[in-house]
């Protein structure tokens, strides 16, 4: 719990370049509404950046801040708001400030990809944490010693982390419910027209069973096995054996409900994981190939180019702004259209 029930909680939002506006807004608007509905100043907040200068979010809007990192202002909690290209952010003053805050007993949190900065500052060791599903694979590769869950949010003692989008709304509503009671939290939820306050164990992504219906548990099990075995892919015979179907039956299920053969679906999963690692980590391409179950870098490069129309090296260069889009010659896409 942040602060005591009888005092105003002082919250800092530490904005990273290209932070996501929806995640930041989902967090701060809950606090505003808590003050409005209660008729009290339950929360005060200020915005911070590494140098005290305005910060541009991923949609181009620029926000002024109140303080730079290393400010002497005292906080009950500080939330790092991350977004695009967080793995490229080098912020030693910010890391030092976070370590100093930790020594002062300040609650620390990560919103969207803000978890990355907490991990780099070694302030998530021995804590459960989470991050946006798109960054999950890269974070696990970079910080293998951490327990990074796929949950919507994690509150582990004095560490608060959550996925992006509207996940911060649920995390903050849970905090308000714990600190000020269910009536206020429910009132805020109703103001924002939220059907319910999601539990931390709600999935970040829509489960496959909701997309294909609950009547195909063996298909869902097969896909789950694929997702859990990216580095060392299972054969189709192994998958069929584990789900209790023949190869032919499994192929028919994939064709009917996912509109592709199992091997193609599996390849797409591995390539999507590889693309996340390419864009969200600095791992060498050969290491990414091995981590995603490819026997060699040339084989990985060919599969990647066939699917995404450019090789992995150019994908990374394009993301860094080093590749002219006009030099990329698109080819007909072979990608599976996931339902």
Notes on the protein architecture:
- This protein is an alpha/beta fold and 339 residues long.
- The chain has two domains: 9-191, Rossmann fold; 208-327, Arc Repressor Mutant, subunit A (Orthogonal Bundle), CATH 1.10.10.60.
- Helices cover 44% and strands 13% of the residues.
- The strands form three sheets. The protein has a seven-stranded mixed beta sheet, sandwiched between helices. A two-stranded antiparallel sheet has the order 3-4.
- Helix 4 crosses helix 11.
- The two termini are 40 Å apart.
- Mean pLDDT is 88; it is low at 325-333.
Architecture (CATH level 2) name of the largest domain: 3-Layer(aba) Sandwich
Sheet with the most strands: spatial strand order = 5-2-1-6-7-11-10
The low-confidence parts are: 325-333
* CATH homolog superfamily of the largest domain: Class I glutamine amidotransferase (GATase) domain
Oligomer type: single chain
Average pLDDT reading: 88
The number of distinct β-strands equals 11
Give the topology string: H per helix, E per strand.
Answer: EHEEEEEHEHEHEEEHHHHHHHHHH
Which structural category fits the helices and strands?
alpha/beta
CATH topology of the largest domain: Rossmann fold
Shape: globular
